UniProtKB/TrEMBL annotation:
<protein>
    <submittedName>
        <fullName>ABC transporter ATP-binding protein</fullName>
    </submittedName>
</protein>
<keyword id="KW-0547">Nucleotide-binding</keyword>
<feature type="domain" description="ABC transporter">
    <location>
        <begin position="8"/>
        <end position="211"/>
    </location>
</feature>
<dbReference type="InterPro" id="IPR003439">
    <property type="entry name" value="ABC_transporter-like_ATP-bd"/>
</dbReference>
<keyword id="KW-0067">ATP-binding</keyword>
<dbReference type="GO" id="GO:0005524">
    <property type="term" value="F:ATP binding"/>
</dbReference>
<dbReference type="Pfam" id="PF00005">
    <property type="entry name" value="ABC_tran"/>
</dbReference>
<dbReference type="InterPro" id="IPR027417">
    <property type="entry name" value="P-loop_NTPase"/>
</dbReference>
<dbReference type="InterPro" id="IPR003593">
    <property type="entry name" value="AAA+_ATPase"/>
</dbReference>
């Protein structure tokens, strides 16, 4: 089946919390094989936008279309303290209907936390919990990945490994949208969506601009 021309298409999305108008007409589209970032100040609406894109909350108006399956990694880890890493992987394997957890096994190695597979979540460090959170979002190999500050708590080496994983996903035609606070991340992105006053201004990353000029 041919791929949809757009991995993600967002048209005129509005969202208010009571009188607080957070999103005031967000529109953009992303193609498969794109590594994109959402940047903006605290409270500019980055997490709100991702929650709308994954369907966790509804927009007041506007439209969102996905060109394929979705993976969402929330900012807060959603894990069960009394289950081990392996038990989480088994649960999600069943929930996603996967015959083999092959992608999860790769991510255990790529993110470097295979040694904790028999450890309960309550005994994991914050960074290792976040690795599991990310693995659960990616293990069904979705077409569109929505990642809300996916590397919080990662040490530097794991942070770099995360960007290697993201780059390989892009090479395989996946569309990866990452919420970021860090100015230096924008160097790694194809597209930067700057969220300000409720609208997203798409542009090429600083690195791309530097190449173009
Ligand atoms: N459930 C909610 N009810 C009321 N207000 C909310 C709710 N969720 C978010 N807000 C408000 O909406 C605005 C945008 O919040 P959001 O979490 O989307 O911003 P953000 O850009 O992700 O912030 P940060 O960089 O701090 O993570 C903030 O003013 C926040 O207080």
């Amino acid at each position: 089946m041919p791929r949809a021309p757009h991995a993600l298409r967002v048209h005129d999305v509005h969202k208010s919390y009571r009188s607080r108008r957070v999103l005031r007409g967000v529109s953009f589209s992303l193609e498969p094989g794109t590594l994109a970032g959402v940047v903006g100040e605290n409270g500019s609406g980055k997490s709100t936008l991702l929650r709308i894109l994954c369907g966790q909350i509804a927009a007041d108006s506007g439209a969102v279309e996905h060109g394929g399956s979705l993976g969402y990694c929330p900012q807060e880890t959603v894990l069960n303290d009394s289950l081990t890493v392996d038990q989480h992987l088994s649960w999600f394997q069943a929930a996603y209907g996967l015959e083999e957890p092959a992608r999860a096994e790769e991510l255990l190695e790529e993110l470097g936390f295979a040694e904790y597979r028999h450890t309960r979540v309550e005994a994991l460090s914050g960074g290792t919990r976040q690795k599991l959170n990310l693995t659960l979002a990616l293990m069904h190999d979705p077409d569109v990945l929505l990642l809300d500050e996916p590397y919080q708590g990662f040490d530097w080496e794991t942070y770099l490994r995360f960007w290697d994983v993201a780059a390989r996903l892009r090479e395989r035609g996946r569309c990866v949208l990452v919420v970021s606070h860090l100015a230096w991340d924008t160097q790694r992105l194809d597209v930067v969506l700057r969220l300000r006053h409720g609208v997203a201004t798409p542009g090429e990353s600083d690195a791309m601009r530097a190449v173009a000029t």
